[in-house]
Amino acid sequence: MKRSNQPNCGPQHNANELTQTTVQTSKYNCSITSKQKKNPNHICKNKIKLKNLFANIAQRLHRVYAELHNSARKSTEAMSASKLTANCNNHSVNQAVKKWLGS
């Protein structure tokens, strides 16, 4: 029996079959279905390329989401603290809030 040097990419596909690749990270599932007929000899390489591409995209989206979330959290904290300072008539509470804010 002839051995193949290609990595194992799962079951064999025929040329008329639709291909689907799913990549899972800690937060995202990304999948793509190709509606073009594929040459079965290239499906394995294409699946690996798609997995790497979607893993890269998912990681970038995760970083952008984390930065946006962190920025929104900081903005909300600052806004809440300034409202608290403005609404407090008690001098000692205002001083405590200012000390907490580092100003």
Plain-language structure description:
By secondary structure, the protein is mainly alpha-helical. The protein has a domain at 19-75. It has 2 helices and 2 strands. It has helices at 40-87, 91-101; strands at residues 19-24, 29-34. It has a two-stranded antiparallel ribbon with strand order 1-2. A hairpin with a 4-residue loop joins strand 1 and strand 2 (29-34). Helix 1 (40-87) runs antiparallel to helix 2. It is rod-shaped and about 75 Å long. The N and C termini lie far apart (76 Å).
SSE arrangement:
Blueprint: E1 19-24, E2 29-34, H1 40-87, H2 91-101
Antiparallel strand pairs: 1-2
Task: Please give a quick description of this structure.
Strand 1 (19-24) and strand 2 (29-34) form a beta hairpin.
Oligomer: single chain
Structural class: mainly alpha
CA-based gyration radius: 26 Å
- Count of DSSP-assigned helices: 2
Give the biggest beta sheet: 2 strands, antiparallel
Q: What is the rounded distance between the termini?
A: 76 Å
Which percent band covers the strand fraction?
Answer: 5-15%
Uncertain segments: 13-19
Q: Please state the average pLDDT score.
A: 63
